[in-house]
Amino acid sequence: MKLIRAISFSLMGVIILLLIAGSIVEQFYGTAIAIKYVYTAPYTIALWALATIGGITLLVKTELKQWATILLHFSFVVILAGSLLTHLFGIQGAVELKLNKPTNTFTEKTNDYDERSFPFTLELKDFQVIYYDGTTTARDYCSTIQAGDKSGIVSMNNIFRYKGYRFYQSGFSEDMSGSVLLVSYDPYGIAVTYCGYALLLLSMVIFFMQSHTHFRQLLKKIKVRNGVATLVLLLLLVTNLNATPSTIPRQQAEQFGNLCVFYNDRLQPMSCLMTDFTEKIYGKTKYQGLTAEQVYMGWLLSPYSWLDEPMFKLKTNDKKLLRLNSRYATYNQLFEAKQKKMPLSKYAEEKMALVGMLLSGELTKIYPYRQATNEPASNHIVWYSQGSNLPLGMADDEWFFIKKSMDYVGQLAFEKDYARMDTVIAKLNKNQQNIAGDMLPSGKHFRAEQIFRRISYSKPLAMMAVTIGIILFIVYILLLSKSKTMPKWLYLSSYTLMLLTELFLTIMLSMRWYISGHIPMSNGHETMQTLAFIAFLLALVYPLLARLSNNHTKRSYSEIVFSWLIGGFALLVSMMSASNPQITPLMPVLQSPLLSIHVAVIMLSYALLFFIMLNSLVALIQQAIWHFSGKENKHATEASYAVSQILLYPAVFLLAIGIFIGAVWANISWGSYWQWDPKETWALITMLVYAGAIHTRSIKFLQNPTAFHLYCVLAFLFVLFTYFGVNFILGGMHSYA
Question: What counts of helices (H) and strands (E) characterise the chain?
Fold first, then answer.
């Protein structure tokens, strides 16, 4: 048995190393090479098979009475069997259809991209791009197709099935004359794999209900030693003295901010664009007592007076190029710049590009234009700026209004005739209402977004949470070294402040949800804020759960310390890319409820794994203090060891569930539940690494608390790389997450 156990776990270690090697090969040589020579190579399949056989042998000989454990491991066998069937008999490909041109061939997705035939003809009858109201941003693609004797519609996350073939909407031809569909034929693998997913979920539920599992034994042990309550938690503007630069009064600037603008592929208050502009070039939303709206209008109407402002350091060439990028540049100036090939300073490139877009008139898209077409109204409203190339068929009065109205505003600003400026702003607003009134955001939606964008909360909230977390952590370690607990007044103060922070974060996430129209889990900023929300929530519900457990043992209040740290660092990460990144429409492929469930489950798993890492880190520090002081608390050692083990079960189970929910979403969205994308691969690696920590009774060195805690601390590096390293180093389809 010892030999079989050693071989089985050694094989899993080799598989993990192979998966890591595959991600490296993919980075340098491409996905196709990595799949062919690493992920699905015969030796890799053989290793999976041998590890499976070894695991089944161990299971039968040691866990006959644990039906939940047997079913849990058997579900992975079924999932692997389904994957093998997909690999052997499945077909993946793509077909480009042209309107009313039948075909019976498609391109198979192999290393050589072979052409294969359908046992029927396939014809595109109609194709439409459905846009977000009042914009040219695609919300969905819809193809009406005829396959043999059956017709139907294919759209994003809506599959068309015929004779074992499944068709998924992928995109469309550049000239809009056709549609691109993904093709999948998998007669056996999907059914078997989905059965494995169902067995996995069922076995996990039974596992927590069964009374003789290792998990339940640990619960009983920790209840005696240190209290059940600890475990239940885990289950779950200075201004300067310079002269104010030229701009318009605050009242008129705010009126401009109340206009609607097409920005970031959607309609939103112009004040949001103004806030983003000011924050990107200055780092703050105000400048020398001027609001973001005043800063934006100052640059727009009087750019030369702002070129020497100390908002950022400019070199001589930078200033010249900004003047040349403005709509006031003459042909001779542009020709001279082209001849001299004037370079832009590297440090100023991004900020200057933004200012250049503003000065050229390209950024302020506030003019809606209704094109003559037979399509639905929402599909032919196009938004232009003063610097846009306008269509030839546009009426003269519309052309003149777009090209000259802002110049007139500039003249009125120079003359300080703000009464007439109010009239022009009113005409701009009326023009938007007349042409695109039914597509503009509602008054409540508009106001909510303005309020949300004015609250630049990410940075101060993150700094506050991290500071509190670090201070409490230091206090916690010092108290541990003296075998003392946190004073109740400190705990109550920390708890109250966390409650207020959670309420504020709930309000801001709710507003973001309301404004965007989708659950705030679509990018790294949002998922990290959700992780902070979960971490705080776990600590806040702890007292209630502790009371329900009827536990009156001495508490260490570690949950409040760890939750401040987890939430603080999550918020800190959320603000790294931007203090409050722009809200954008979801890509069509992301419009699935499974995505939100997938992200939420994964984030909850990461929160628990973070907690385990902190618990293990504290245990290691505690052991080091005891080693030098010569005083050891065996009860505390056993308790921290049991806490991390208990948390591992829900953490790993949630990670597995999250991965497989993501696989189902991928299968619905683009026809393949596993693409060996770097994020998928590293999520699997992380799950396998932490699965090893669960098997403490089989892996002897993990029975040592010190070795176990060290393993948990190092294992968290895989979580960090899965979330951050993949995004910034390996890339892939999930790099947006």
Answer: 24, 12
Cβ atoms of 519 and 478 closer than 8 Å: no
Q: Is 442 exposed, middle or buried (0-12, 13-18, 19+ CB in 10 A)?
A: exposed
Range list of H helices, 67-115: 67-89
Q: Which of 436, 517, 513, 381 is nearest to 259 (CA)?
A: 436
Structure tokens at 675: 């693409």
**Helix extents (H) in 283-340:** 292-301, 316-325, 331-340
CA 606 to chain CA centroid, Å, is 14
Which of helix, strand or coil describes residue 45?
helix
Inter-residue long-range contacts of 373-382, CB under 8 Å, 24+ positions, other chains counted: 377/438, 377/439, 378/131, 378/132, 378/133, 378/134, 378/439, 379/129, 379/130, 379/131, 381/134, 381/135, 381/435, 381/436, 381/439, 382/136
The span from the CA of 102 to the CA of 119, in Å, is 13
Over residues 137-186, the pLDDT tens digits come to: 666 788 899 998 889 888 877 888 888 899 988 877 766 778 888 888 98
Backbone angles phi, psi at 630, to 5 degrees: 75, 10
pTM over 0.70? The answer is no
Question: What is the rounded radius of gyration, in angstroms, for the C-alpha atoms of the chain?
Answer: 30
Q: In the beta sheet, which residues pair with residue 266?
A: 263
* 689-721 CB burial, b ≥16 within 10 A, e <16: bbebbbbbebbeebeebeebbbbbbebbebbeb
Which residues make Cβ contacts (< 8 Å) with residue 629, sequence separation at least 6? 481
**What are 567-594's pLDDT values in tens digits?**
888 887 777 654 444 545 555 555 566 7
User: Could you tell me how far CA 75 lies from the centroid of its own chain?
Assistant: 29
Helix 67-89 / helix 42-62 crossing angle, nearest 10 deg: 160
